[in-house]
């Protein structure tokens, strides 16, 4: 019989590189920790890009009870990013890849007293992904560690962390049947396989036909079957699976079980404020509850293999999932084998999950790398591997927004998606519409999606005149209002994923009033606050729970005679009351706007279909400066009149492209922009030496670029004075 013993407790942690014997010797003096654990829970989230990246040790004695059994295996579900496993000082295995499970057999190496030592590293190197990306690369044993005891005849445990059983259902929608192929790997002569109450005794593989099949039908009915395999020795494995049909059409988008099923959802990183990536099952369940509240029907699990418990939750809740490996930002010539290893493990370990619709080859891989033959061949190898291992799912990529649409890399995966940030990093919101219209017109037979889009927002910052780069909750909401309309007008988009559901750690960032965080989340890093944009998507996607939400609750102090009151709701009609008196009713969809005079302090209430929401706002004489992130930039919008400028000379109202062409003015702006880029973390690296992105920037005025980059008022004025001294 199989016995699984969790050994999360009783570890000693040593935060230093040392030989194995030294680690064992000093282990009693180490910090007592329980798993899951990361050593970057604090320094990986506080900014500065100086979190510890190196070797650390986890040491634990194994008890006699824990080591009993005919054959004993160690199972590590997540060790970031490289792990050496030692038993009694002897190296048993090395695993490279921080997000997949791996196992090693201990049986022949056990002694009377046994000490298990794991050396884990998230060090910088040139062969194990990820190494360059806009998120923190936490180190640690951050998922469960188990001992698995099995009889001599048992299911395979070592090969790529396999579950030992693989289930492939093929559905005939017309006949309402599913042909289910079950494959097993073991060292016995026969196996009993059971599906839907029917048992077959075979050598390895069995096939079953399910009549009147109960479909796994997304959010509506995520029904799961179970396949069980048992050996004569008593060793047994089982897996859940779902019977469903996924399809993509270049004109009509995504289909589930033969019907149009537009995929509209969010992306998720697996970290949490104060805990890093060392999440408990309760943390995963809490995240899923927020996703279900939002009403999303798809998730992009970025940018790596997530915990099996979370894929299970996606299966159970009917979320359609994009699963990917951390082949990201910068192609490493020495990393090809690691991409193949991580993809092979992802598919092996996650194949049975019905929620997974696509395998992601890479993310923004051309952000810091040229499209050369080595990069293309790496992607071809990954694409071929996916198709060889799984003939039922397509491959995809998340393409960086400056990648030209005629690039040969777009021809490799079965379908594509783009990460676009027009209206935030560069350009204007409408350029997103133009991009997809151009792409779809030029390539009408290609399937295209929208894999990332977002704008940072700190809930402390507010404005009645929000603009790109101000980090206000109001601009983030306007940004997403535009994107939601853009998406709804283009049904050919096979999937759209907001970046991101939650704020997450990016220790290289220092912007928007916070250190070490990407603030594009619809929900704060600690999950305590839903930003206004969250309620926008809930209004658009959650049709089962009537609600109204008053935007701007945190924008209490307003220095204006008249103010806009905006409501998000999934109801068709909203009534607004001010100080207990109804002032208007608006019919519509998702977004409802009212304008009211601001005379003093007012109690505002919105009502619809028996639900309501309340807030307090007040008139103040001067703008509340605590609401302004970049106070200097907020004051420079109109700090000079056009007639004060000499049109024969350059100014900050000229575009970057125009200024760059001048031999005297060009070097001046380049130097100023380089200084600003140094504070943007890995984001700035995507700009350097990228022709397409440079062309986009060239069309923007220097004032717009500098304000978004957070330049102070005096720096902008000084640059303008210098430029006014240079004739065009």
Describe this structure in words.
The chain has 728 residues and is α+β, with helices and mostly antiparallel strands. Strand 38 and strand 39 (581-587) form a beta hairpin. The strands form eleven sheets. It has an eight-stranded parallel β-sheet with strand order 31-30-29-28-27-26-25-32. The chain has a six-stranded antiparallel β-sheet with strand order 3-2-4-10-7-8, with helices on one face. A five-stranded mixed β-sheet has the order 36-42-41-38-39, with no helix packed on it. It folds into five domains: 3-150, Galactose-binding domain-like (Jelly Rolls, Sandwich), CATH 2.60.120.260; 161-246, Sandwich (Immunoglobulin-like), CATH 2.60.40.10; 265-546, TIM Barrel, CATH 3.20.20; 557-625, Immunoglobulins (Immunoglobulin-like); 631-723, no CATH class. It has 14 helices and 42 strands.
Short description:
This protein is of the alpha+beta class and 728 residues long. The protein is built from 14 helices and 42 strands.
- The number of helices is 14
> What is the CA-atom radius of gyration, in angstroms?
28 Å
* Estimated share of beta-strand residues: 25-35%
CATH architecture of the largest domain: Alpha-Beta Barrel
Structural domain tally: 5
Taking the sheet with the most strands, its summary is: 8 strands, parallel
CATH T-level topology of the largest domain: TIM Barrel
Are there runs of 5+ residues with pLDDT below 50, and where? none
CATH-level-4 superfamily name of the largest domain: Glycosidases
At the first level of CATH, what is the class of the largest domain?
Alpha Beta
The class by helix and strand makeup works out as alpha+beta
What is the share of helical residues? Answer: 10-25%
């Amino acid at each position: 019989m199989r016995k699984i013993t969790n050994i999360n407790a009783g570890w000693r942690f040593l935060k230093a590189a040392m030989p194995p014997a030294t680690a064992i010797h000093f282990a009693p003096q180490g910090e007592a920790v329980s798993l899951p654990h990361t050593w970057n829970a604090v320094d990986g989230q506080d900014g500065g890009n100086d979190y510890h990246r190196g070797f650390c040790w986890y040491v634990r004695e194994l008890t006699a009870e824990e080591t009993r059994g005919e054959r004993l295996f160690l199972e590590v579900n997540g060790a970031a990013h490289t792990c050496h496993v030692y038993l009694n000082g002897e190296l048993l295995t090395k695993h490279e890849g921080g997000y997949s499970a791996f196992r090693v057999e201990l049986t022949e190496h056990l002694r009377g007293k046994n000490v298990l030592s794991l050396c884990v590293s998230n060090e910088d190197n040139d062969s194990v992904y990820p190494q360059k990306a806009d998120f923190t690369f936490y180190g640690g044993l951050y998922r469960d560690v188990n001992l698995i005891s099995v009889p001599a005849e048992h299911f395979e445990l070592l090969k790529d962390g396999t579950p030992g059983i693989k289930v492939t259902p093929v559905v005939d929608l017309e006949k309402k049947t599913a042909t289910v192929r079950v494959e097993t790997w073991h060292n016995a002569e026969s196996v009993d396989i059971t599906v839907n109450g029917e048992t077959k005794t075979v050598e390895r593989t069995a096939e079953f036909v399910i009549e009147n099949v109960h479909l796994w039908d997304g959010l509506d009915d995520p029904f799961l079957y179970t396949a069980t395999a048992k050996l004569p020795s008593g060793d047994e494995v089982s897996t859940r699976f779902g019977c469903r049909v996924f399809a993509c059409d270049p004109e009509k988008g995504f289909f589930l079980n033969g019907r149009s099923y537009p995929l509209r959802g969010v992306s998720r990183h697996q970290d949490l404020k104060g805990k890093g990536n060392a999440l408990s099952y309760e943390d995963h369940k809490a995240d899923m509850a927020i996703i279900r509240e939002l009403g999303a029907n798809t998730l992009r699990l970025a940018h790596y293999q997530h915990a099996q418990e979370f894929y299970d939750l996606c299966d159970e809740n009917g979320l359609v999932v994009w699963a990917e490996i951390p082949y990201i930002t910068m192609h490493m010539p020495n990393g090809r084998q690691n991409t193949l290893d991580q993809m092979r493990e992802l598919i092996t370990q996650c194949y049975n999950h019905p929620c997974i619709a696509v395998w992601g080859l890479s993310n923004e891989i051309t952000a810091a790398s040229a499209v050369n033959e080595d990069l293309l061949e790496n992607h071809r190898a990954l694409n071929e591997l996916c198709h060889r291992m799984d003939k039922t799912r397509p491959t995809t990529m998340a393409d960086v927004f400056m990648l030209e649409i005629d690039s040969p890399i777009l021809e490799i995966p079965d379908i594509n998606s783009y990460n676009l940030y027009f209206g935030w990093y560069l350009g204007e919101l409408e350029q997103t519409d133009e991009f997809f219209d151009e792409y779809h017109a030029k390539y009408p037979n290609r399937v295209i999606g929208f894999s990332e889009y977002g704008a940072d927002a700190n809930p402390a910052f507010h404005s009645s005149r929000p603009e790109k780069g101000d980090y206000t909750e109001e601009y983030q909401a306007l940004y997403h209002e535009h994107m939601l309309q853009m998406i709804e007008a283009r049904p050919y988009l096979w999937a759209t994923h907001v970046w991101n559901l939650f704020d997450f750690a990016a220790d290289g960032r220092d912007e928007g009033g916070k250190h070490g965080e990407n603030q594009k989340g619809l929900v704060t890093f600690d999950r305590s606050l839903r930003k206004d944009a969250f309620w926008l998507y809930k209004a658009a996607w959650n049709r089962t729970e009537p609600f109204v939400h008053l935007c701007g609750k945190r924008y209490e102090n307003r220095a204006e005679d008249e103010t806009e009151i905006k409501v998000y709701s999934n109801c068709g009609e909203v009534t607004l009351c001010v100080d207990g008196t109804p002032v208007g009713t608006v019919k519509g969809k998702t977004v409802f706007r009212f304008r009211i005079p601001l005379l003093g302090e007012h109690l505002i209430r919105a009502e619809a279909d028996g639900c309501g929401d309340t807030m307090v706002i007040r008139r103040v004489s001067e703008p509340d400066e605590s609401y302004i992130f970049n106070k200097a930039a907020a004051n420079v919008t109109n700090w000079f009149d056009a007639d004060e400028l000499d049109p024969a000379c350059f100014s900050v109202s000229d575009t970057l492209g125009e200024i760059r062409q001048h031999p005297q003015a060009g070097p001046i702006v380049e130097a100023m922009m380089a200084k600003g880029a140094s504070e943007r973390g890995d984001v700035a690296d995507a700009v350097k030496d990228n022709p397409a992105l440079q062309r986009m920037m060239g069309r923007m005025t220097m004032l717009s670029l500098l304000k978004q980059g957070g330049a102070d008022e005096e720096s902008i004025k000084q640059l303008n004075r210098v430029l006014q001294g240079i004739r065009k």
